[in-house]
Design a protein that fits this description.
Layout: E1 12-13, E2 20-21, H1 30-37, H2 45-55, H3 62-78, H4 91-96, H5 99-111, E3 126-130, E4 147-151, H6 152-156, H7 164-169
Antiparallel strand pairs: 1-2, 3-4
C-alpha cells in the first residue's frame, strides 16, 4: 500500500502553458493562475464555473466572516457601499417601522377579528389599510377608526392603493 506522504503527489501539466506542476489538484501553474486572476483580465466562462463549483459546500471560518463584516461596515461608514444613500431615512419609513405603528396594525386586526372586511375571508394574507391616506392625513395615522383589515387582493382594489387616491383627486 503506497504511503500518503509527499511521494503521493503526482505531476500534472499546466492547461495553459504545458509546464509540469507538482500538484494533484491544480490545473495551472502559479504564474498562469496569477495571470487569470489579475485585475483587467476577464476570466473565461469555464474558469468562472470551475471557481463556483470549487466554493460549493465550503464554509468560512469565524475569522473570515468577521473580517468580511468589518470591511462591509467600513465601506458603509465611508459612503462607498452601493446602497448607501447619505444616511437618510424617510420620515414615513421611520414611522412605519415604529412600535406605535405595529401596535396600531395589531389593534386594527384584532378589532376586525383577523378577517378581510370586504370579502369576509379569514386566514388569507392581511394588510392593515388606512381609509384616509397615511401620507395626507398625518393626524389620522394612528387612529384605529381610520384603519381596516383587508386581504391583499381586496387591498389592491381600493381607491388609495399605490397612490390612486391622488390621481382620483386631480
Amino acid at each position: 500500500m503506497p504511503s500518503r506522504g509527499r511521494d503521493y503527489i503526482k505531476s500534472n501539466i499546466c492547461n495553459n502553458c504545458s509546464k509540469q506542476i507538482s500538484s494533484h489538484y491544480a490545473e495551472r501553474c502559479k504564474s498562469c493562475a496569477m495571470k487569470i486572476t489579475r485585475k483587467g483580465k476577464t476570466p473565461s466562462e469555464s474558469t468562472i464555473k470551475n471557481s463556483i463549483k470549487a466554493r460549493i459546500g465550503k464554509k468560512l471560518s469565524l475569522a473570515q466572516r468577521r473580517n468580511m463584516s468589518l470591511s462591509q461596515q467600513k465601506r458603509v461608514k465611508d459612503g462607498r457601499h452601493h446602497l448607501f444613500n447619505g444616511g437618510i431615512t424617510s420620515v414615513n419609513e421611520k414611522i412605519r417601522k415604529s412600535l406605535e405603528y405595529k401596535l396600531w396594525r395589531e389593534s386594527v386586526y384584532e378589532r376586525d377579528n383577523y378577517t378581510c372586511v370586504f370579502c369576509m375571508i379569514k386566514g388569507k394574507r392581511l394588510n392593515a389599510d388606512h381609509i384616509k391616506p397615511f401620507a395626507y392625513y398625518p393626524e389620522l395615522r394612528f387612529a384605529i377608526d381610520n384603519g381596516r383589515t383587508l386581504c391583499v387582493e381586496c387591498h389592491k382594489k381600493t381607491n388609495n392603493y399605490l397612490n390612486r387616491w391622488i390621481k382620483k383627486q386631480q
